[in-house]
């Protein structure tokens, strides 16, 4: 039974740490919304989009921990990353060059 309590306390600390990071992002960007996605054995990805269009992400060890952190931070959580939510993301030249890779601005093949 002590092992279960120890795991629960550890998860609680992870939730609190992630919620603090989410809240800091939200404060820095005039509010935020998020979406939790399962990424396999690695856990879950929390995608954050600020009211100013800035975006970022965090990785949690599980979907459950990610959802609890989002809830604790008090931001709106979306089921999927589409429609109006995705349209809020503002991208600049850096993001476009990273997404395009070699096709735009990357190394040239001879």
Kindly describe this structure:
Helix content is about 45%, strand content about 20%. The protein is an alpha+beta fold. A hairpin with a 5-residue loop joins strand 1 and strand 2 (about 45-50). It is built from four helices and four strands, in the order H-E-E-E-H-E-H-H. Helix 1 (about 1-30) packs across helix 2. Strands 3-2-1-4 form a four-stranded mixed beta sheet, covered by helices on one side.
Computed CA radius of gyration, to the nearest angstrom: 17 Å
The coarse overall form would be: globular
In helices, the fraction of residues equals 40-55%
Alpha-carbon distance between the two ends: 63 Å
Class based on secondary structure composition and strand pairing: alpha+beta
> Major β-sheet, in short?
4 strands, mixed
Number of helices: 4
Q: DSSP strand (E) fraction?
A: 15-25%
Can you write the helix and strand succession as a string?
HEEEHEHH
Mean model confidence by pLDDT: 86
Q: Could you tell me the number of beta strands?
A: 4
Extract low-pLDDT stretches: none
Strand order of the largest sheet: 3-2-1-4
């Amino acid at each position: 039974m002590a092992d279960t309590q120890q795991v629960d306390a550890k998860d609680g600390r992870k939730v609190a740490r992630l919620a603090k990071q989410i809240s800091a992002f939200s404060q820095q960007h005039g509010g935020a919304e998020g979406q939790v996605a399962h990424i396999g054995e690695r856990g879950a990805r929390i995608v954050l989009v600020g009211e100013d269009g800035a975006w970022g992400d965090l990785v949690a060890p599980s979907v459950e921990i990610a959802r609890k952190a989002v809830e604790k931070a008090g931001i709106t959580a979306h089921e999927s990353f589409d429609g109006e939510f995705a349209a809020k993301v503002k991208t600049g030249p850096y993001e476009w060059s990273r997404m395009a890779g070699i096709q735009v601005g990357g190394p040239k093949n001879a």
